[in-house]
Amino acid sequence: xxxxxxxxxxxxxxxxxxxxxxxxxxxxxxxxxxxxxxxxxxxxxxxxxxxxxxxxxxxxxxxxxxxxxxxxxxxxxxxxxxxxxxxxxxxxxxxxxxxxxxxxxxxxxxxxxxxxxxxxxxxxxxxxxxxxxxxxxxxxxxxxxxxxxxxxxxxxxxxxxxxxxxxxxxxxxxxxxxxxxxxxxxxxxxxxxxxxxxxxxxxxxxxxxxxxxxxxxxxxxxxxxxxxxxxxxxxxxxxxxx
Amino acid sequence: xxxxxxxxxxxxxxxxxxxxxxxxxxxxxxxxxxxxxxxxxxxxxxxxxxxxxxxxxxxxxxxxxxxxxxxxxxxxxxxxxxxxxxxxxxxxxxxxxxxxxxxxxxxxxxxxxxxxxxxxxxxxxxxxxxxxxxxxxxxxxxxxxxxxxxxxxxxxxxxxxxxxxxxxxxxxxxxxxxxxxxxxxxxxxxxxxxxxxxxxxxxxxxxxxxxxxxxxxxxxxxxxxxxxxxxxxxxxxxxxxx
Lengths: 242, 242
Description:
homodimer, Rossmann fold, 9 helices, globular, 11 strands, two-stranded antiparallel ribbon, alpha/beta
């Protein structure tokens, strides 16, 4: 059985309070940077891996995408996504990305926002995603940065000067268990090199690798984000099927 | 004037005591991993950016390289390199990589070991290296990892448990001044994403990204290296001119 924290009452309630859950893409500070990596959406057939409440699926349709297949493990999230608007060109499907079967060769874009760091068999999923894309098709993803995920005791250490991020365990790949609205959330730590090599091994040509940091304007609006300049939280990658 | 720490008496004396200076490639723990990224050397025309004592130039020739051009800022290092064996197919040339002119289109491999993190205009150098390579030519480099270089106070913090690497300043790109055999050694910090994007922007297709970590056998032989598993020290990259 896959981990499905999302349908737990306490997780779903807590997750629903996040700006990115309430406001959608506009509530996700990394969205402008991720959006800049997207190919033309007009006419595109889009695969959304872990579509959540469907914010990106609806965005893609607003931008002219021909069709969106949104895959999501959480039944509650899919229910909410469906309740936010019927669109015959968006198909929501409940699926476990660890074992999903994907149709081959029909997609122009595979998108995934903050989901891949939960996947144990990332190489297996990427191979299926690669086969699902047309030649030249795009892969655009965000995930937790391994520097953020690696530590045995993640959390800022505030000393005399700037906050410091106590890194350890970078090369101990595998499970990281954390509490996030609910106890025992399991994530999968991989080095940045491992993630990139898995993508290249699945037949992708890397196009852009961004370790996300808030902009000056974002920090001016949210001064507490200043410390996000000390270490990366998100990793954004654009690649193309070779 | 470029920084030339290497010709300072104290630096040269200290640097000469390192295993990698005394024993050459066999004294560099990351060498087996870097070597695994190399293309076939037989018949290759090789450009060595920052050739130091010429260890790699001689290795390439032993493996059948047709010609090696070794560029090095340090006159003392070049003198030592030349003293270690005459070979008409190795040309050592004193050059500052920040402003060097490279011949165009003649090389099959550009190699650089632990030098690029001193270069301020990495994009400019990579553009010249790209033009110096034949189509399909290889770029294989090692450099200091940005996690290693970023902190305002680099150095292990030993607490109750495992050693921890106090990361900060990851997104403050630019100079890092450190003492290494001589005071005031200036390095250039860039995020991993920036380095990879500069390479792709210069026309390289990434092939492998490795954040080096000692093997079990190396740690068994040098137990103090155990802590190198906590954070990456070296970054190894293989790419091809697209």
